[in-house]
Amino acid sequence: MPGVWIRRRVVLGGGWPTAAICPCCGNESDVGDAGVMGLRNYRGYWVGHGAPWHDSREERKQKRQGWDLLEQMANIPPQWR
Predict the structure, then answer these.
(1) Domain range holding 53?
(2) How far is it, in rounded angstroms, from Cα 50 to Cα 53?
(3) In degrees to the nearest 10, what's the CA dihedral of 81, 39, 47, 68?
(4) Where do the DSSP E strands lie in 1-48?
């Protein structure tokens, strides 16, 4: 199933939120993002404040494995951008 994968979890599966908590931004998909505009506002706020990670241990692990913010954002399905 195509989706945005973080920590072996699909945060957006098949283009829809899965209620997983993103270790990057701390957003729980399907909570607080009832509309695309809410999600865009949250993402804009998060990126505008330097895209701080919610889980610092996961940040270290993912960055060692080559995690890249721009690449991750490019994986966001078009309808959720």
Answers:
(1) 12-80
(2) 9
(3) -50
(4) 3-6, 9-13, 16-17
Contact 26, 59 (CB under 8 A): no
DSSP 3-state of 3 = strand
Total structural domains in the chain?
1
Cα–Cα distance for residue pair 34/4, rounded to 1 Å: 18
Q: Is residue 1 part of a domain?
A: no
Domain-embedded: residue 41 = yes
**Tens place of pLDDT for every residue, the chain, 81 residues?**
344 545 445 555 565 666 778 888 888 776 655 667 877 888 899 999 999 999 999 899 989 999 999 998 898 878 778
Task: Please state, in angstroms and rounded to a whole number, the distance separating the CA atoms of residues 28 and 23.
Answer: 9
Which sign, positive or negative, has the C-alpha torsion 9, 43, 2, 24? negative
